Amino acid sequence: MVFQNPDAVAAGAPPWHLPAPQPRPTSGGIRGFTWALWPWMSWVLPVFFAFHGFLGGGGWGTLLLLFASPIFIPAMGLLGMLPRFILRKRGHRTAPGPIVWLLFVNWWAWVAFTITMQDAGDSGPMETMLGGVLPARLSSGFEQGIFLGAVAIACLSWLAILFVAIAQPQPRPGMPTRGGAWDAVSWNAAFLVPALLVGAVALGVQVTALETDAAGDTVSQVEALPIAAQADRAEANYTLTQQKLSEVRELIADDGWSVRDENGGWVRGPAFASSYGSCGGSDAECYVFEVGFALEKAPAGFDSYDEAWNSRLSELGWTASERGYGWTDADGFTLEIDQRQNVDRLVVAIESPSWWGDTYDIRQELGEADEDLGLGLTYRFDEWPPLR
Q1: What value does the mean pLDDT of the chain take?
Q2: 294-297: which pairs have CB atoms within 8 A and are 24 or more residues apart?
Q3: Of 107, 130, 162, 265, which residue is 20 to 30 A from 334 by alpha carbon distance?
Q4: Helix axis angle, 359-366 relative to 227-252, nearest 10°?
């Protein structure tokens, strides 16, 4: 039976000389679904990234993204739509098979780096969106690994989508819009990529649980201790820190060491301090001890830059730091000596490695320190202010 075009016959052309009209490709399967979803994801994901900080305790990054959003969102949305514009101009009405799986990889990468983006406020780094919903701790180092990996995957997958879109020919009449190997790959990508993300997070939680502090204890081991035992542990760690510094002070002077200056300020901050950056990348509470002593007049002939001084420190187990200044030892302590030219005052300070413990709870157990602690006093090399 010959197909007749009624409109053409009405115009006077013989029906057997007219080509049968070809059906336009219709949306179908995962390719049609992805094609319809593409505009939504191109705009929703940048909006989600720009304003996700408002779903939790936003920091400076959230504020910067807010001000940048009038430029960032349209730019990212148009870049996301660019390959689709190219394909549509060439007559495509469904996403080509080689592009569909790349789109799912790109979209899930956007989700991954959004929820693992590290923000910061006045008090330091803040919890990520992912960290806020997890029931267990996840190392911030592991989160940053996911963040950087997701950003790289998002950029590379977008470039791949763009190149494939440019290389795609016009759709052939009757070209199938569903089925085939590419659809199987796309379905796998749609569900396998988030499964891999969940698996990476689960692995990170397990690795984080095994992280130890300077004493070799895990967070769970320390949290299981009564708060009184944690306070005793902190006091022992403080004593260890002071003992290490006293060995160095003995090499310089026997007496005349002070911890407060003439204005009442600490030579090197309060001894007991929390330190997010030293927590081994975990969001668990930890603390370090940073203490310093000053001599108003350095001993005659003392020179901390002298090679002989380095030799004396090496006998105590100190080695020059890779930072180019200061010294470190095998236990993770860091030593600094501040001796400036044409200034008589000499300052020695030490910073300990970190130990697990909630600084607020431990401070409450130790009791409030005397505000006048060490004020107007000098100490021998083997003396120091008490922690409580």
Answers
A1: 84
A2: 294/257, 294/258, 294/259, 294/261, 294/267, 294/345, 294/346, 294/347, 294/348, 295/252, 295/253, 295/256, 295/257, 295/258, 295/345, 295/346, 295/347, 296/256, 296/258, 296/344, 296/345, 297/344, 297/345, 297/346
A3: 265
A4: 80
| DSSP 8-state assignment for residue 375 | T
Q: Does residue 78 register a pLDDT over 90?
A: yes
Beta strands in 201-285 (DSSP E): 272-274
Q: What sections of 90-178 are H helices per DSSP?
A: 97-115, 129-133, 140-167
Q: How confident is the model at residue 108 (pLDDT cuts 50, 70, 90)?
A: very high
CA distance 274 to 119: 19
As a whole number of angstroms, the distance between CA 246 and CA 293 comes to: 10
Pairing of strands 120-121, 124-125: antiparallel
Q: Which residues contact 350 (CB under 8 A, 6 or more apart)?
A: 241, 244, 245, 248, 289, 290, 291, 292, 333, 334, 335, 336
